[in-house]
Amino acid sequence: MISSKTSVSVKRRHGLSKKAQKLLMGVLTVFAAAAALIFLLPTILTMANSFMSASEINANYGAIFSTTEEGGKTFISEKINLKFIPDMVSFSQYYTVLFKSPDYLFKFWNSVILVVPIVIFQLAVASLAAYAFARLKGRLKEIIFFVYVVVMLMPYQVTLVPNYLVSDWLGILNTRAAVILPGIFTPFAVFLLSKIMRRIPFSLIEAAKLDGAGEFQIFVHVCMPLCKSALFSVAILVFIDYWNMVEQPLILLSDTSLYPLSVFLSQINTGEIGLAFAVATIYMIPTLLMFLYGEDYLVEGIAYSGGIKG
Amino acid sequence: MKLKTNRQGDAPKIDAKQYKIPKMSKIKNTKEKRHSGSLKKTLKSDGAFPYLCLLPSLIGVMIFFIIPFCVIIYYSMVDNPINKEFVFLQNYINIIKNTAFRKAAVNTLSFSLVSVPLAVVLSMLLAMLLDCKIPFVSQFRTSFLCPMMVPVASVVLIWQVIFHYNGVLNDFLANFGVDKIDWLKSTKGQVVIVVLFLWKNLGYNMILFLSALNNIPKDIVEVATLEGAGVFYKFFRIKLRYLSPTIMFVTVLSLINSFKVFREVYLLTGDYPFDSLYMLQHFMNNTFRNIDYQKLSSAAILMAIVMVAIIGAMFIAENKFGEDVEG
User: Fold this and answer.
1) Residue A9 vs residues A18, A21, B138, B150: alpha-carbon distances, Å
2) Which of B223, B225, B249 is nearest to B326 (CA)?
C-alpha cells in the first residue's frame, strides 16, 4: 500500500536538468544503501558468527567475555577481531546447543510457552472487544475506550506494579500465569482491531441482519473474514513484542528456570561463548520467518496503528 | 490556503464490493413481503451480544490494571500496608527526595529528551528518502524494518563486540587518533543507548510516516508546483501540515518506547550499570526486590501522572492542529 509517487515529476518542472536529477537520485540511493547496510549489519554478523567454531570465537572475542570471569583458561587475544566470514564454516555451535546443552532449548521452550498463549488469547479476547467497540455507541463506550488507550500507553514502570499486586493476591506470583494473564488483557490488540473493524461498511452488517443473521453470526461470518489479514498483522506485532520481553519476567518471576530466552541470553557466561551466537540466531529465527512471510501484513498493521484517536 | 480533504485512502479501506454479501436476493424479497414489524425489530435490537463481547476484556482489564491501580493510589498514601495510617503526600515527598529515584528519573528524562526528537526527525527523513523515486525501495524498506523484528537479546552480543573497551568501534576510531573510550562504563553510555534505540525504532516510525506521506492529496502538491512553489515551501507549508498528526503520534510512541530502552541497558550491563545508564526501570526492579510498596506505588503513580499529562497535551495538540487537515 505504500508507494512512491511524488518528487520526480515535480523536480523536472522545477528546472533541474535531467543529468542533475539523475545525479541526485544516485546520491540518494547510495545514501539509502549505506543506511540499509548499517541497519542490517548487526543481524547478519550475529548469523555469520554462529557458524564459527568455539575456538575461533574464543580467539576473536575472548577479550570481551573473559572480563566476566577470573582466570580464563583459553588463549585470549587483547584485540577483538570482528569477522564477517568465519575462517572455517562449522556447525559445532549448533551441534552443542541442540545436543549437548539442553538448557538453552528449555529456555527457548519457556519463551514459546509464555508467548504463544498470550498471542492466541489476546487476539481472541481483543477481537470480541473490538467488535463491541465498533458496534456500540454512546458516552459510556467512549469513556471505556479512552481508559483502554491510557492503559495501553502506560509504560511498564507503571503497569508492572498493579500486575505484581494482583499476581500476589491471586497467588500466581512466580508462575507462568503471572506473565501470561496480564499479557492477555493488554489493550493493544483491542485498540488496533477496533480501529480496523470500524471501517467495515455498515451496509454489510445491515444486509446480514436483514438476512436474519444474529449478532453472533455477523461477528463470525461477516466481521472475522473481513479482518483476517488485520488479525494476522496484529498477531505479528503482539508476538514480536512478547518474544522480546524482559521487564515482566524479571519482576513477576523469581525462579530463573522459568525465564524466557530473551532474558537468559544475557546471562551466558565465559565457558559458553562458543555457542552464544548460535543461541542468538536460533532465537531470532521465529520472528525473522514471520517477517519474511508477513512483511506486508506487518506494514499494514503498523500503518493502522497510527493516530491515537482512531 | 485552507486544505480540506475527505479522508481518502486513509489506510486500506475495506471495499464492500469485493465481498459477496450472502443472499442478496433475499433482502429484496423481505422488503417486498413487507414484514415490517419483524424487520424493525431486527434493525433496532442490537441485542446484548456486543456487551457480552466486551465483557471478557473488560473484566481482565479491571482485574489486572484498573482495580489494583486504585489500590496502589491508596497504598501510596498510607505509611505501611499493615498499619495503614494515612500520611497523604509523605510517600511522594520521600520518593522525590530519594537519590536513586532522582538519578533514574534524570537519566531517563535526558535520554528521552535526546532520543525522541531524533527518532521523529530521522524516521521522517528516512520516509521521505523512500518516497523519492529511488530504485530498490522495497528492499530498503525491508532492511530498515528488520531491526524491529530482531529480539534485543539476539544482537546484544554484537553490541558488546562493538562497544567494548577493546572493541571494534574503538579500534576503528583509533585510525583517526581518537583515544579509547569505555563506551558502556562512562558518561558516553547515553550515546550508545541513543544509537541502539534509534536502530531499533526508526523502522516502525518510518512506516507510519510513509503511510502519512501517501495520504497527502497529490493534487494539492501538483497545484502548488504549478504555481511555482519551491521544494521548501511545499515541505513546510503543505507536507508538514498533513504530517502533523503523525508527528504527534510518533512522538508519543517514541516516548513510550524510550522507556523500554531499559532492555538494551539491562542486557548489556545488568542490574547496576554505570551511573549515567541507571534507568527508572532499574530503580523499579531493585525496589521490587525488597518489596517496598510505598516506594513502588508512589513512584508508579508519579510516572502515571507525568504520562497522562504528556499524552493529554498531545491529544489537545492533535485536536488543535489536526482539525483543518482531517476535515
Assistant:
1) 11, 10, 20, 37
2) B249
Q: Are B156 and B268 in contact (CB under 8 A)?
A: yes
- Average pLDDT value for chain A: 83
Give the H or E element holding residue B156.
helix B152-163
Q: Which of residues 17-46 of A touch B (CB under 8 A)?
A: 25, 28-29, 31-33, 35-40, 42-43, 45-46
Q: Which three cell numbers stand for residue A83?
A: 569477522
Torsion of CA A41, A47, A51, A56, to 10 degrees: 50
Statement: residue A187 has pLDDT above 50? yes
Which residues are CB-contacts of B224 (< 8 A; sequence separation ≥ 6)? B233, B234, B237, B238
Domain extent listing, chain A = 18-98, 99-305
Of the listed ranges A62-71, A150-159, A209-218, B266-275, the one predicted with least confidence: A62-71
Q: Chain A residue closest to B140 (CA)?
A: A36
Q: B167 and A203: CB-CB below 8 Å?
A: no
Residue A67 has pLDDT above 50, yes or no: no
> Which tens digit of pLDDT belongs to each residue from B231-287?
778 788 888 888 888 888 899 889 988 988 888 898 888 888 888 899 999 999 888
| d(C-alpha A97, C-alpha A275), whole Å | 7
Determine the pLDDT at residue B304.
Answer: 92
Contact at 8 Å (CB) between A204 and B19? yes
Q: Which of B64, B130, B263 sits opposite A246 (nearest CB)?
A: B263
Positions in chain B whose pLDDT score sits under 70: 1-47, 321-327
CA distance B202 to B131: 15
pTM here? 0.84
Altogether, the residues listed in chain B come to a count of 327
Nearest C-alpha neighbor of B16 from the set A190, A206, A211, A304: A206
Of A298 and A75, which is predicted with more confidence?
Answer: A298
How close does chain A come to B285, measured CA to CA in Å? Answer: 7
Residue (of A33, A292, A20, A23) closest to B130 by Cα position? A33
Number of H helices, E strands in chain B: 16, 0
Q: Domain A99-305 belongs to what architecture?
A: Orthogonal Bundle (1.10)
Q: Which three cell numbers stand for residue B32?
A: 417486498
Neighbours of A132 (CB within 10 A): 25
| B137: nearest CB among A4, A78, A148 | A4
Residue B73: which residues within 8 A CB-CB, separation 6 or more?
Answer: B297, B301
Q: Which residues contact A168 (CB under 8 A, 6 or more apart)?
A: none
Are A306 and B12 in contact by the 8 Å Cβ rule? The answer is: no
Distance CA B295, CA B298 (A): 5
pLDDT at A20: 85
Residue B280's closest chain A neighbor by CA? A157
* Nearest in space to A86 (alpha carbons), one of A57, A62, A58: A57
Q: Whole-angstrom Cα distance, residue A182 to residue A122?
A: 10
* CB–CB contact A153 B252 (8 Å): yes
